[in-house]
Design a protein that fits this description.
Elements: E1 20-22, E2 28-29, E3 44-45, E4 47-49, H1 51-63, H2 89-106, E5 111-120, E6 125-133, E7 136-139, E8 142-149, E9 152-154
Antiparallel strand pairs: 1-4, 2-3, 5-6, 6-8, 8-9
């Protein structure tokens, strides 16, 4: 009887985790771990890795006002009264420029390819469509779409 040894075959390459963040849904599950002795029965908050972590960071940046993060009080975007005034195309352009400036300041991991904002006067909200790429993970375009109104940013 022959014994087959696969000593020349390479094991599957796991994706290297460069960036990690808490999942925005704040759900509990089994954490991703490469430790051999990790007990799979331990539950913790689920995490987002790499591209998902960067996407979470962009959402957090849009959703956070300066002063909300105690250890980094300057972090966030100050929309001022723009979201409480009637929705208009001109205000949408100011909001878009404010978001782009914040991305340049706080999120150097991304390059913005395209940024569209549409003012929906009937619903009193702005539809935001951002196309971006992450140079550390190729240059494939990624999308972030959501609605922004006076109550927050909803993806």
């Amino acid at each position: 009887m022959a014994i087959k040894l696969n000593i020349l075959e390479r094991p599957p390459i796991e994706e290297k985790i460069i960036y990690k963040d808490i999942n925005l849904k704040m759900s509990v599950g089994f954490p991703n771990s490469t430790e051999l002795s990790k007990n799979n029965l331990i539950q913790d908050l689920k995490t987002s890795d790499n591209l998902d972590a960067i996407r979470n960071s962009l959402i957090n940046l849009i959703s956070t006002s300066p002063g909300q993060k105690i250890l980094n009080p300057q972090f966030g975007i100050s929309f001022g009264d723009l979201l409480f005034l009637p929705v208009s195309r001109e205000r949408g352009e100011v909001i878009a420029q404010t978001i782009l400036n914040a991305f340049k300041k706080y999120e150097s991991r991304v390059n913005i390819v395209n940024f569209d904002i549409v003012a929906n006067i009937e619903l009193q909200q702005y539809a935001i469509d951002i196309t971006y790429n992450v140079p550390a993970f190729d240059y494939n375009p990624l999308k972030l779409k959501g609605d922004l109104d006076k109550t927050g940013f909803y993806v």
